[in-house]
Specification:
The protein is of the alpha/beta class and about 350 residues long. The protein has helices spanning about 50-55, 105, 140, 150-155, 160-170, 190-195, 210-220, 235-240, 255-265, 285-290, 305-315, 335-340, 345; strands at about 10-15, 20-30, 40-45, 70-80, 90-95, 135, 145, 180-185, 205-210, 225, 245-250, 265-275, 295, 325-330, 350-355.
Amino acid sequence: MVEREDKEVLMKALIYHGPGRRAWEETPDPRLVEPTDAIVRVDTTTICGTDLHILKGDVPAVEPGRILGHEAVGTVMATGDAVTTVKQGDRVLVSCVTACGRCRYCRTGMYGQCLGGGGWILGHRIDGTQAEYVRVPFADTSTYALPEGVSSEAALMLADILPTSYEVGVLNGRVRPGDTVVVVGAGPIGLAAITTAQLFTPSHIVAVDLAASRLEAAKRLGADVVVGAGDDPAAAVAELTRGLGADVAIEAVGVPDTFDLCTRLVRPGGHIANVGVHGAPVTLHLEDLWIRNLTITTGLVDTYSTPALLDMIAAGRLDPTTFITHRFGLNDMEAAYQTFSDAAETGALKVVLSRNADG
């Protein structure tokens, strides 16, 4: 049992009960299993679009009974005997990707492909962070002690959306100074791509989305041109690029139509960086694309960029709290899910749930 002041043996958590079914309910506290584990009290967590994909049944590896969530900032409550870099009482970021630190992939910074029991496991193959407490395997290499002056809300955005957009979108897409970058999908991941693409001073950033509220957010966060419902993305990009097409197209939705749109917006010799989580097959029209010298990349975030992004936040170079639109207490998990699920109506980008927001 987690060492807690109230000595309870049960906690509350958001539990998946199969497609379309979830519940915020009591479940046993997590326990240390391996000497490399830490138990973290969840002080702040959030909901990801991937959680919605799980609830739709798009991720069959997630079994009923699983606690969802893979993003958190919290306080270390207990550690296994082998943990050396964090200790009880430390405030830490819990990464969405767990790393054993020893396997071939971890040794080359590809933590998302960890062969030693890590990768994306929280809220996927083991219980996750949408709970009062969470067990974090490989705590030395899967948590980050937070410096003074970095708020929990700012750090929380480094658990997933910022490194995902930066690594899988901007870096895989090879954004360079002077490029025209199109981001298809202005949800949290797309907005984070818009934010981090600016680190490379592209000449234009174009945001494509159907929701007016998200396009407003895109403009606020740095998009130069926004393309909404009823507009022609290809015409907008052609006008900016003298008919050449975008240098980089970042797919941040995860449906066949948006991937296909990216293939039509990018110029010959350009890059398509797929970030969206796809739950349905996508047709790759090689009969048209083979001749265009395109580079298409996919990827699960590795989080190798987290320390650098954390330094940028600490230095005031990045302020990811601008993605947050709604705040809830941890016990308001169901209301937070409803708000996030109805983003077209609520305008939700990132919802944050905090322990200290409870009454």
